[in-house]
Amino acid sequence: MTHVLIVEDHEENRNLLKLLLEANGYRATVAGDGVEALACARRDPPDAIVSDALMPKMDGFALCREWMQDQKLKTIPFIFYSATYIRPEDEQFAMALGAVRYLIKPLEAKVFLAELSAVLQQWAGRPAPTPPSVLDEAAAHALHESALARKVEDKMTQLEALNRKLRESEAKFRRIYDSLQDVYLETSLDGIILEIGPQVVTLSKGQYKREDLIGKSANVLYADFGHRDAILDAIKQHGRAVDMDATFKNRDGSLIPCSVSGTIVRGTENEARMVATWRDISRRKGV
Prior knowledge:
This protein has helices at 11-23, 34-43, 60-69, 88-97, 109-122, 137-179, 200-203, 210-213, 225-238, 282-285, and strands spanning 3-7, 27-31, 48-51, 78-82, 101-104, 183-188, 193-196, 240-249, 255-266, 272-280. By secondary structure, it is an alpha/beta fold. Strands 2-1-3-4-5 form a five-stranded parallel sheet, with helices on both faces. It is elongated and about 95 Å long.
């Protein structure tokens, strides 16, 4: 039975590839990094190795370099299968080290299996090809450093793109948030106000500002605690409260009829919070 060594640090990816190979008649062994792969291969030499590029301890490039310096292992074809090092320069470096294929994840199962089969048929019974010119230590180190630098550059580009999208999303949210007519309210489950929209200035006719209420109990907003209890009961029983009556109590004691809708959400640290909107319905009530 043809034996393939899989080198992959992500357990899920490693197991999926192992299952794929075993389902198609191969014997598959696995390693989580280059150091482990070398030990496995020297103990139980495979017919081919399929290795990721980005891994801890010893990455795929360093593994390939060590592989080609081992008199027994260098006759075994080395296949890269990477989703992180995807530039042409990365493939060129891998082939210069002695790899016979540089595959980019993800591939359809049938495509991956066809590539593996082609390699095994091509090099069956004879050693895998040696690179046109063996890289000396200095050249290999320089090319490896360049590959790592490209990876950092790509990662920084990706992070900048994500940060740009995040800034755009935050700006969009802020525009929507600031243009709301209703007052947005966010509290902890024990009723402490964590966030309240700037529209509270309009609702309170200038008697409250956002900063006056953050950190206070939401009870200060209610003229009638019966309304508060009804809203909380609706959320507990049905998961949300919709268009329920409440009376907003202003700083000077004046009362403003409101409609409240609310629900429970999870915060960034998975903590439960209550979010609600307060709408002035004075006109609806004829006040």
